[in-house]
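A common beginner's mistake is to predict each chain separately and then try to dock the pieces by hand. The better habit, illustrated here, is to supply every component at once so that their relative placement is modeled jointly.
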Amino acid sequence: MTSAERGARLRRWFRTVGFLVRKEFLQVFRDRVMLFEMIAIPIIQLLILSNAATFEVHDSRVHVVDESRTAESRGLVRRIGASRYFTVVSSDPSMAKAERDLATGRASVIVRIPRRFADRIESGRTAPVQLVLDAVDGATAGVVRSYLGAIVERHGAELEAEAGPAPGTRGAVAGPAAPLAVRSRGLFNPTLDYKDFIVPGILVLLVTLIGTLITSMNIAREKEIGTLEQLNVTPLRKSEFVAGKLVPFWIIALAELSVGLVIARLAFALPVRGNLLLLFGAAGLYMVVALGVGLWISTVVETQQQAMFLTFFVMMLYVFMSGFMTPIESMPGWARALTELNPVRHFLLIMRGILLKGAGFADLWRPLAVLAVMGVTVLSLALRQYSKTTG
Amino acid sequence: MTALRGFIVKEVRHILRDRQTLALLLLLPLVLVILFGFAIRTDIRSIRVAFVDSSPSAASLSLENRFQGTPTFHAVATVASTRALDPLFRRSAIDEAVVLPADFARSLGEGAGRVQVLADATDPNIGSIMTAYAEAVIQSWAAEWIASEAAGPGVLVSVRTAPNVVPETRLRFNPTLASEDLFVPGLIALVLTIVSAVMTSITLTREKERGTMETLLVSPLRPWQILVGKVAPYLVLGFVNLVTALAAARIIFTVPVRGSVTLLLAEGLLFLLVCTGLGVFISTRTDSQRAAMLASMAGLLLPTTVLSGMIFPISSMPAWLRPITYVIPARWFITIARGILLKGVGLGVLWPDTLVLALMAALLLGASTRLFKVRLA
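With all components supplied together, the output reads:
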């Protein structure tokens, strides 16, 4: 084959793909409901959900059972009430009532100060304070426990300092000074803003969800309606067909991601510490993988219903096994191994790396390489699976 | 009524004939609940830590050994300068770093020791927990080290710093903070929401897409009968899913059942009614399966995950956002399920949540019946 012939074939390939792309765009823009859903769902969800994803504790409802009724115990109650994390909602002295409040959800923690609280402090013995937490919400319970524990201990230290060394104690005034000064710093997110962490994840998942759904149902729909057979009898080549199905949604997905990034930047002041060009390069690669998965699903199934089920399964894996909300390091070994197959996990690592950590190509070549391998694999799978003959 | 019965029989045959889809329908929710019930842990089990130790000494090595000896920390690297940390953090090869100054051993002997802890706070929640863990390890090590230095070489002293007022914590309803107990009820609610809504919205839009809806419309069946006939089989399927998922929760994850099982199943049925109602409602607003699926999956998956309280506590959300969570059906069912399973409470406590679900069901099914078009466009 001469180079002129090869050039002509390449031009023809692009021309054919161009027609297919135009056809897909026409179909997308014709279905107004779909178009509206594709645009409105990601934008609205990005704006709302980004605010919801946080573990911050504020105004946790405290039921105080003060059986001591001394200046010391009242001081502790005042200290708890003054904290911005806690609101004292009841100080009914009945423990049974308090337990009931906990069960109904009227209170989320009980602080019980026993009768001999002040006596024990005065005689230099350890005075326990009971904290009973509603642990149905595990994340909150952990935070509440550590905050409340710190308040209680600080109050104890101050009481001791006021009282001076009690007879028979070690004689330390404010407890033993820490022997070692530890200074801690959180990197990449100094204000500990949960949005910086969650917004890239929500954005990636939304765009992936829409993109995968649309591509996975696309060919299945043509099969169901019977138009796929019409396409099959044309001289269309397999590669042209796959490219024609992929390119339009690739463009739409990248456009959605860009719009989402602008919104995230404006609405949530999402930092961009690294190179945007690298980000979009990675996004382009990732979208080939994500949409390729959708396309592959579409070639495997017979009906849109089946496509939908497979997509649902894949999306659940994407959401829960990507490190989007819960840490991958906490998963059992087999689950961690499974996340390696999850393109969202790798792309999120890249997104957060570039946006929050200012990471460059040298830091991110590994996840990028994984995505590239995935892209090639999934496209060849789709290409092989799609058969131009029926029945 | 015989017409309705005949119609339901036809629908059931449709479902039973497609064995593949039926198997998917029955197995998929179960597989998802079991898979994620095992995989998702919200506690922190593994922290990769690096040390910056420019002049290794007995003290610094002892501290590093202490970290290595904990089940949570895994030392992955010891580097000579903080500069070497940057790429490790950026590559996410480490989660935390402990920086020991060059004069660590000497200053520690003089009682002026300093240590810096750097944590990857990309996830601020995890970031602060990791710092607290590391600080606790360092402080307890330091107390012992200083005491044994004072006692002379070779003597091991264990020190307990005893503050005078100690909090004694009791975690009610979930003493071990088991991730499964918290997560599995939420997972069941999420999976059932989507499967039910998707199934019903698809079954109705498919009739529109294939043109068989016209046949149904000209039949003597009344609009509400068409809806009932379409929804009832899927309601039964959803209920089977609910029962198997709850059985899995009980048997595989040993989630406690402290309240009434009958009440839980009744509430589950009510919740399923809301979800199928949602599906019917979506199908009245869309004409193609694609649009219906996009709405019921893209429209429900993330909002239900994030706003239902299954992972992120609703009490942590900003005040303006909390009312928005009210429209999420799973939010109410999760409160109910956690209440019955973990707290052992009954209708006396859960009636407001039940009432909301009942209202939702009435509203969705009522609106759908009215919006259901008896004529084609």
